[in-house]
Amino acid sequence: MSHRKRHKEYLKKVSKAVKNDSQRLAIERTTKRFDENRKKSLKDIENFEELRKEARKIREKGLENLFENIKKFTCEFEKVGGRVIKANTSAEASGFITDLAKKKNVDLIVKSKSLTTEEINLNERLNDAGIKVVETDLGEWIVQLKGEKPSHLLAPAIHLTCEEIAKLFSQVTGKKLPADPSTLVEVARNELRNFFCNAGMGITGANFLISESGTITLVSNEGNARLVSGFPPVHVAIAGIEKFVTSLEETVKLLKLLTISATGQKISTYVSFITGPSRTADIELNITLGAHGPKEVYLIVLDNGRSRMYEDEDFREALYCIRCGACLNVCPVYKEIGGHVFGHVYMGGIGAVLTAFLNGLENAREMAFSCTGCKACSEVCPVKIDIPRLLLKLRERIVKKEGLPWVKKVIFKKLMKNRELFHMAIKTASKLQKPFIKGGTTLRHIPLFFSKYTKSRYLPAIARESLREILEKNPIKKNENPKFKAAFFSGCLIDFIYPEIGKSILKLLGEENVETVFPFEQTCCGIPVLYSGDTGTAKEMALQNIEVLKSFDFIITGCATCLEALRNEYPLLLKNNPTQKAEAESLAKKSYDFSEFLIKFLNYKPKGISNKKVTYHDSCHLHRGLEITEEPRELLQGVKGLNFIEMEFPCHCCGAAGSFAFEYAEISEAILERKLETIRKTGATTVATACPGCIMQIKGGLREAGDKIEVKHIAEILAEN
Known about the structure:
Layout: H1 3-18, H2 21-42, H3 48-64, H4 66-79, E1 83-87, H5 90-103, E2 108-112, H6 116-119, H7 122-128, E3 132-135, H8 138-146, H9 162-173, H10 181-198, E4 201-204, E5 208-210, E6 215-220, H11 224-230, E7 234-240, E8 244-245, H12 248-263, E9 270-274, E10 279-280, E11 288-289, E12 296-302, H13 306-311, H14 326-330, H15 332-341, H16 348-358, H17 365-369, H18 376-380, H19 387-402, H20 406-416, H21 419-432, E13 437-438, E14 442-443, E15 459-460, H22 467-473, E16 484-489, H23 491-497, H24 499-511, E17 514-517, H25 527-531, H26 535-549, E18 554-557, H27 560-573, H28 578-589, E19 591-593, H29 594-602, E20 613-616, H30 620-625, H31 630-637, E21 643-644, H32 660-663, H33 665-682, E22 686-689, H34 692-705, E23 710-713, H35 714-719
Parallel strand pairs: 1-12, 2-3, 2-4, 4-7, 5-8, 7-12, 16-17, 16-18, 18-19, 20-21, 20-22, 22-23
Antiparallel strand pairs: 5-6, 6-9, 10-11, 13-14, 14-15
Helix pairs in contact: 1-15, 2-12, 2-15, 3-12, 9-10, 15-33, 16-19, 20-21, 23-24, 26-27, 26-28, 27-28, 33-34
């Protein structure tokens, strides 16, 4: 299937998912509980960040010594009667299990805790061989009954409400059942109990594999994992090569982070350590295998593309994942469309990377690009995986293989890279937009292939005069004895869409005796290009801007996205060239957000009086990317008479994310609606933020909904007082 056709199919699934209010409600209920429980548990841990750092080191060490760990585990496990099978592919793994079941005359298999078996399509293979498979995790059993796949790493049936599950169980039992969790759990217990006793084989996954002792570690709350691994005469565990840990001591540290991050528990109800088959030495100290538990225990160590990831320095980090699911619980995209759409076997951002290596790049493309880049996932990851960075690298790989869409190719490589041509194109567009301007400042119902961008939202019109045109006519006045000299890096949105923000920033800096220069040679920061996977062009744009800005003492911007480019992305983009890297790092050290500069260097105290009721939205780039959170609030709260109201979840993504808002418009709009609801609940008359992209998104959404709430850049609020 071509990329274009695959993209259309994906958007159809997205459209269906965002309209499924029942699914969105179910996901919101559960992910919110998970995240609240996690935060509550973290209050009791003083050194959580240190634990995260230590956990990452443990995962790094485990992979650095991977082959030694596998060898050690195999030796110890087989000493006590277990058997290790190495499977290079999913077909080898599922084939071995199927052949073993046939050899043992198994006609019923019970399973628990094994998303890895979904990766190898094990159930389908066993069913084709005439072997019945019963999932015994409650969530897994529910989705099996519905003929679906798991939609969350931890809670497979998260997409279903209690009412829907009650209806399903009523069909299974032939009885009308209430939507009561206790009743439904009792039904599952009664229905599944006989399967444990009659199964000829139990199949589980493994959370960790302890090399020093040859021990399989299983974590669960329901107790079924113990029954699956303990009742049948044959136990087969399957795990990826990344699950090896050196010692029990290290495993305990990871277990603590796993359970807190997954469910908010200090420790899960059951932690099982399985070291080979069950055994007894009660008769004259003669060790005999197969006492009350299984007589045979097999561990299948699955590669299936993991070795390629292990050898790839860009993506090895993804193997640190301990499958806690915390990233999904905070992911704005996942909450709107769920794991059946935003996933293949593994879900979300980390799932996109795993899918690329385990199930093919073509199955990962849409997942990789339908991410807002909000960084909420990396903020909660217990082993500090930089998932957004991995996704940028994945997008780069995809573009290298498939190329850019022709529209982006023209815009990025022909227009945005050429400053004069880019500015000329913007000027031309400002004239062509006139028939579609509504109310003097917004666009709606643009024709041709642009129509989808304004189908259900307002976009801001290109300003009649750009900031650069305004400053060409009215140059910035020079200060006689300035405190500081700085360059103002406007970014595209402030320059061409919101020049009033730029004017406000320049006004305030001038009043504080800062001599500010607007370098007319500056161009786009390159983030839209980088986030589209065109790293090569992004590097060229970075070099252009560094050349223009490097001679200045300070670079000040009012765009959070641009600052993240200047401070974080440029040094990474140019890291392979020592000279360019040094210049990028030098630029990064002297680049500041407008609010940050006012507080840090000017000790600015707002002037004037305001009677506004203002709430503040943290942009993802400023909050998580740059960790600038207090300065904007300090400035707003310093305005006399201003009533500052903190909204609930101020750092939740608004769904803007550059071209994401257009390419995945329905997801963007669904994310935005949640943000608008939190804004409305504050009763504020003004929303302040420090990101022009967020302004465009939130202002367009409020206007579409008919709200009278105004949206302002923090600089505009300060300048008008």
